[in-house]
Amino acid sequence: MSSFRRSWVWLLLLSALALCLLLFNPTPNPHLAKHDGTPGLPLPHSSATIISRRTPPPCSCNVRLLKDFFKKDNGTVKRRQEEYRKHKARASSTLDLLLVAPANSPLQYPIQGFTVVPLKGTPIPGLGVYAPERRIYKVSLVVSRGVLSVKPIGMDGLVEGDGSAYLNITALGADKLNTILGRVHYTSTVYRLRTGDLVHFIFEKHNATFPVVIEQASVPIIFDPGEDINSQVTITTKTFLRYFELNTMIYSIRQYYKTMKIIIADDSFNPIKVNGSDIEQYFMPPAQGWFAGRTLAVSQVTTKYLLWVDDDFYFTKRTKIEKLVEVMESMPELDMVSSMVGRSGFSYRMTYEEGEEDEGGCLMRFRGPHEETVPGFPQCYLSNVVINFFLARTDSLRKVLFDPRLKRAAHSQFFVDAFGKLLIAHCNHVVVNHQTKRPGNDKYLSFRKQNENYENKRLYFFKNHFSCINLSAD
């Protein structure tokens, strides 16, 4: 009997609530603009979140513009513009928008860290209204790339639009309203690896907006480091017509690392088999170039780290790979650490501005590293461009790789592609030597001195979408 009476009480309360809605709110929520039955974004007013997309200003490198080299090539210019627009559409998302929260808002909502798996319902944490007491509390929530629902709906108030892109929630008290808000779930209706949505949260004249990160969790790729340095690191190199130097380097390596695997990419015209244990030599079509060989060598690495060396380096007792591993292990964010080749250990920092869409970005390179050091290693500075003797995380390096269109002189180009993708440091406490240059080998030198300036400019202009690049900015 008591259960029957409670049911009647609930029915009377809901009836009274519905009557109040008719009396005090006879029109739809004025902050929701509907078009063809689809809820739109909240109308702007003084207490709304400010939403904008930053438009990059034009930039300059104080050098000749790259487009000047392609004035007569209209096809390249048009394709460049079209492909960049496609790139922007692929790379940009709602998460790039600038959101400025309103001041003195009674609304509580998550401002960072709300991430959902695509197509899976997730409760929105922290939603609440904390305003002076009033008779009726009504809020609205609007999204564009998902649906909202209350699970379970319960009997704390009235919920309209459950399972759609908007919700109207009405309750006769702040506690009941916040109880319902604690059960609001967001479910994306799009499947993307990483994108976002905006939730508009509206209460009377107050309108707040917060982001939802829609992200498919990725499967980790973890390398077993084994029990010693030989199972942690693979030495990789590329050779071309320099077998004397290559064998000399291998001899020096084996003085200190007897069983460390060495991977060789070889594009010589008349390849010669390199003998020795723990050596993998991969023969390529002749003269494919440095970057093609680098990519091949890196693709065969199965250890956590790889050490890149030129084929004319020479290991000494100061070539302590363990010390470079120690730096990498101390700072998990690091992707690469370089050190000294003889007395040489150049290091550069770079800046990049996105620039206008049709013109392109501006990259400038300056001598010297950044001022920040690796914690615990004052001899190691963060950098953007380093010398060609480095230890790198294998999985990180594979995310950038090396453009095979660059065959001969291609050092800075890799670090341009890696800018913003790899965190790099340069140290000075590990040293590898250069072998003394031998006279002769004219065939090798004829390839080494080939000019690739035009191809470099074309890749900077088209692939990197640069308006200009200045590699000697200071």
Q: In total, how many beta strands?
A: 29
How big is the Rg? 31 Å
The N- to C-terminal Cα distance equals 88 Å
Low-pLDDT sequence parts: 1-46
In DSSP terms, counting alpha (H) and pi (I) runs of 4 or more, how many helices?
Answer: 10
How does this model look, in words?
With 474 residues, the chain is an alpha+beta fold. The protein is 23% helix and 30% strand. The chain has ten helices and 29 strands. It starts with a helix and ends with a strand.
Q: What is the strand and helix layout of this fold?
A:
Blueprint: H1 2-24, E1 32-35, E2 38-42, E3 50-52, H2 74-91, E4 98-100, E5 107-108, E6 115-116, E7 122-123, E8 128-129, E9 137-142, E10 146-150, E11 158-160, E12 166-171, H3 174-181, E13 184-188, E14 194-203, E15 206-215, E16 233-239, H4 243-254, E17 262-266, E18 279-283, H5 290-299, E19 305-308, E20 313-314, H6 321-330, E21 336-341, E22 347-353, E23 361-367, E24 373-374, E25 377-383, E26 385-386, E27 390-393, H7 394-397, H8 412-418, E28 424-434, H9 442-448, H10 453-463, E29 466-470
Parallel strand pairs: 6-15, 16-17, 16-19, 17-18, 21-28, 23-29
Antiparallel strand pairs: 1-2, 3-4, 5-8, 7-13, 9-12, 9-14, 10-13, 11-12, 14-15, 19-27, 20-28, 21-27, 22-23, 22-26, 24-25, 25-28
